[in-house]
Structures are given as C-alpha cells and as structure tokens.
Design a protein that fits this description.
544 residues, Diaminopimelate Epimerase, Chain A, domain 1
C-alpha cells in the first residue's frame, strides 16, 4: 500500500460532498498529504491548492466521510468469502445442493466449510448431522450459522472433533443431543462452538491461510468505502496477522481491536485476560492498528434461543446468560480500571441489564472519569433499562442489517409476543443521549455499508425490498443514519477528532458513491456502488 506524499496536492471535484458536519454540502475537496486542506467551493479549492495540483474528476454522485464499521470480524470476514454461501438458501434442499456442488468442485479440500445458514431454512429449526451426511458422508462438514453463534456439522466432523455422547457441555454452551440415545445431533452452539470447534479449525490453518483471509477482507472493505473497522473478537492469531500486514504495508483500512474474553469460569483467569489486553493496548497503538479494549459475550442470539431474556421464549426456553453479573462485574471493573474500552455483547433484555449493571459497578468502583464503553447489538431491551444507556454514556453499537425483514421470521417466532414490536429501537436509544454507532457484524451479515444505510432509513429489506418494513416507526433520516455509520462510529473508538467528518485538517478518509441518494432517493442505495475510496490521502480502491 502506497503512502501519502506530504507535498502532493489533489483536487477532487464533480460530485456533491456530504461533510457530516452542520455546514452545507460542499462542491470540492483538496487533499494535501494525508490531510484535507479544503472542503467547500470549487473556486476555493483551486485557490487553496495552488498551481500544479492534480485534479480528479468524479463525474457526479456523492462524496461521504469514510465509513467506519463499528462492529466487524476481520479474519472471519475474509474466511467467509472462501466458503459455501448459504445466507440466501431458502430451504434444506438448497443447502444440500450447494454443499454437494462445492464438495464436487473442490475434491482436494480436506473439509467442506460453509457459512450463513438460517434456522428458518432448516426443518423445525433443528439441523442434524444426518441432513449433511446424506450429501457429504466422506468429508467433515462445518457450517457456521448466519449469526455465528452455532455451527452445524456432520458425523465425520464430530469424529475428528472427538465429540461423543460423553463430552460435557462447557459453561455457556450446548452440544445438542438426541433425547432418546443421548448421541450428539450435529448442532453445537455458543461456548461449545467457540471453545471446541473454532480452536480445532484454527489449528488446521496456517499463517499463509490467515494472511490470505486478512487481505481478502481488506479488499472487500476498501471496495465498499470502508476506511476504518472495529474488530470485535481479536485473538492471538488475528492480531499476529494484522501485525504482519502492518509491517508489510498492507493495511489500507484502519483497525481498532477488542481482545476477546473467554469464559472459563475462574475469576483469576478472567483477570489474567484483562491484563493481557492491557499489555496489548500498550504495544499496539499506531494510527493504522490499535488495540483498544476487551469484548465480553454475555448471551447468545434470539434466533437460536440462546439470548438471555427476562421472560421465556415462545417455546418456553429460558436460557441462562453466558456471563452472569457476579462473574462479569469483577472483570469489567478491572478492565475499566486498566483504562480499556469495554464492549459487551448483549442481545436479550436480561443480558442488556447485566451489561448495564456491570458497567455501572465499574463507574461506582473506579470513580468518575472519561469512558467510552459499549454494548453490542441490543436487539431487545426492556423499556425500563433504555434510559440507563444515556445516563451511563454507553455507545449503542448496532447493525441495521440484522433488522432486515428477510431474516426476521424466525426471530419474531422465537419471541412470539409484543416484544417483537420493540426490536432494534435505534431512535429510542439515541434519544436518551446514548451514542448510536452502526456496523455490520460481518460476516454474520453483508459487509456493505450501503445496505446498512438503506435498512436504517427505511426498515425495509435489502434482500427483498417487496417485504413490508420491520417496525417502520424506528426508521431514521438518511443523514442521521449516515452520521451513525461515519462520525458516531469514529467517536465510538475515540477517533472523532481525526475521522468521520470532512473538514480541513482532518484525515483525508472518504468514499465516493456513483449516485446521490439525497437527490435520487433512498431506494437508489440498493443500486449504488462505491467508485473510489481514499484513506489518508491514498486511493485504496478505484472502481471507475
């Protein structure tokens, strides 16, 4: 990746400019080195640039601040790009055909890997190994669910994992079993997946594999106008791949990382992980790669009936949280004392309450000082807890693409009551004074920020726009949605003074769209594409 020359000056003209600030739209940008020199009129741009500046004609469309994906998973996104894609598979037959086709097209692959299947596509929402054995009995098959909170495997995979009827469920996870025989059925969720399946697969990968996945993710992000990401599950392998890329000059996207906190059940081990995260935060502090904090996963997902709720699911399930308050609070207090940013995955209302209680305990214990802690997802929150988000200064880190009506049928069926009318209540959170930061949670969902904006502004489906909107009263004005995906996302990782707004003196991080949805209408986002991405004054993507 080339670096900006301090003396290079470039004028970008020919498109409207959404600055993200309160000022009116601009006509042109001037970039000198890695900074914006001018944002305003075209006449002013030529005066500021002086003689000899390069001029880039943008041919219409809209310039926006570079998107900052406030919640993503870098290596997993790159890995997912190489797998069988199942997110749009409507039924078991389609899933089976794609598995069989991929296996036939890749005879040398030791395993069949897929991602994105939906519970609604599986009979009764209960995936079994027999369904996969029917089309691929000779090789292990591993299929990550759409939400990446469970994995569906065949018999060969169970064999190589060493999972039998005698394998114990870890704390916070389940190996699904036949109610009569007690044999594992092939569905593994939460910590059983993250502590058994994922480490096994990680051990099969080489550094070359991880570097390939990393580079694929960087290309995908840059080609979609993303100039910064917040990785919400960094481990030793991921951080090593990022560090290698940084050393080799292969970081076209700025990365802020949160160290993933395992849940072994021992407080001393939790505190040791916090100490590791604090050390890594001191060691990785560059403008392109910075470790900022820790990530706790307090519950699972509503689709899989593993999110922690204060009232049971429609089927009577009442799962326990992965981290209860008694276990979570000491680790959160320690991380806060160490100056780390804390991110807490909480999808159900019970999990949200636990997260808020733990973060409030950190404030009470460590005193009043600047903090930017976050809660991730917040898909259903008890109305009584919503005001606490603003009172505690919490960033509500959310992903509009998860509210796409095309993937909501099972979500709604699992709740089965009036709770479905309070899903993804973005405006309510913002009205409390909480910062609302948008990401995609890729690869659990498409990584395109334009899909996110469309869903945020319409509550309609980017996958099937003919579907009715999902609780339309929670739709946001397009300008607000765009700020949540740029400035507020930058704010959430303490980068708002450098990024998220196009104004003189800030970093030249921006994206160019081929059309202007403020003029052409929000629906144009479904066809819009990014034609150019610039990070620190350097073009990282030029698509014409």
């Amino acid at each position: 990746m080339t670096t900006a020359h301090a003396d290079r000056t470039t004028i970008y003209r020919g498109a409207a400019v959404f600055t993200g600030a309160d000022s009116p739209p601009a006509e042109a940008l001037v970039v000198r080195g890695d900074r914006l020199l001018h944002v305003g009129s075209e006449v002013g741009a030529r005066e500021a640039a002086g003689a000899g500046a390069e001029v880039v004609e943008l041919s219409g469309g809209l310039v926006v601040p570079g998107f900052v994906d406030a919640h993503t998973h870098v290596l997993m996104t790159g890995d997912a790009l190489t797998r069988v894609h199942l997110r749009d598979a409507p039924d078991l037959g389609t899933i089976q055909r794609r598995i069989a086709d991929w296996a036939a097209a890749n005879p040398e692959a030791p395993r069949v890997l897929g991602q994105g299947w939906l519970f609604s596509a599986v009979p009764d929402g209960r995936p079994t190994r027999a369904m996969l054995d029917a089309v691929c009995p000779d090789r292990p098959v591993y299929l990550d669910a759409n939400d990446y909170h469970s994995v569906w495997v065949n018999s060969r995979a169970l064999e190589e994992l060493g999972i039998t009827r005698d394998t114990a469920d870890p704390v916070g996870g389940t190996i699904a079993r036949d109610p009569v025989t007690g044999e594992p059925t092939g569905h593994i969720d939460e910590t059983a997946m993250s502590e058994i399946v994922w480490p096994f697969l990680a051990a099969q990968r080489t550094d070359a594999d991880r570097d390939r996945h990393f580079d694929a993710a960087m290309t995908a992000y840059a080609s979609n106008g993303i100039t910064g990401v917040i990785d919400m599950a960094v481990d030793e392998h991921g951080l090593a791949a990022m560090a290698r890329a940084q050393a080799a000059g292969r970081l076209p996207v700025r990365i802020v990382g949160h160290w993933f906190m395992d849940r072994p059940g021992d407080t001393a081990q939790h505190l040791a992980q916090v100490a590791t995260a604090a050390r890594l935060a001191q060691e990785h502090r560059s403008p392109r790669l910075r470790m900022a904090g820790v990530k706790f996963v307090v519950d699972g997902v509503i689709d899989g009936c593993t999110a922690a709720l204060t009232a049971p699911y429609a089927n009577g399930a009442a799962p326990e949280p992965i981290w209860d308050l008694e276990t979570l609070a000491p680790a959160v207090v320690a991380a806060d004392a160490a100056g780390l940013q804390i991110a807490v995955h909480a999808i159900g209302d019970q999990a949200a309450r636990i997260a808020l209680d733990a973060l409030e305990a950190a404030v009470d214990r460590n005193g009043d000082r600047p903090r930017r802690h976050r809660i991730e997802h917040l898909e259903y929150v008890d109305p009584a807890d919503v005001p606490r988000l603003g009172r505690l200064g919490i960033t509500a880190s959310m992903q509009p693409v998860h509210a796409d009506p095309a993937v909501q049928d099972n979500w709604r069926a699992m709740l089965g009551d009036d709770r479905v009318e309070r899903g993804y209540a973005w405006p309510e959170f913002a009205e409390t004074g909480a910062r609302l930061a948008f990401g995609t949670d890729a690869p659990t969902a498409p990584h395109s920020p334009l899909r996110n904006l469309y869903i945020a502004a319409t509550r309609r489906s980017a996958l099937d726009p003919s579907l009715p909107p999902n609780i339309p009263r929670f739709a946001l004005p397009l300008a607000d949605a765009l700020r949540h995906a740029t400035y507020d996302a930058a704010w959430s990782c303490t980068a708002e003074h450098e990024r998220g707004v196009l104004s003189p003196g800030r970093l030249a991080d921006f994206a160019v769209l081929d059309r202007n949805p403020f003029v052409d209408g929000v629906d144009s986002l479904l066809e819009a594409r990014v034609t150019r991405t610039v990070t620190g004054g350097v073009p990282t993507y030029c698509g014409g």
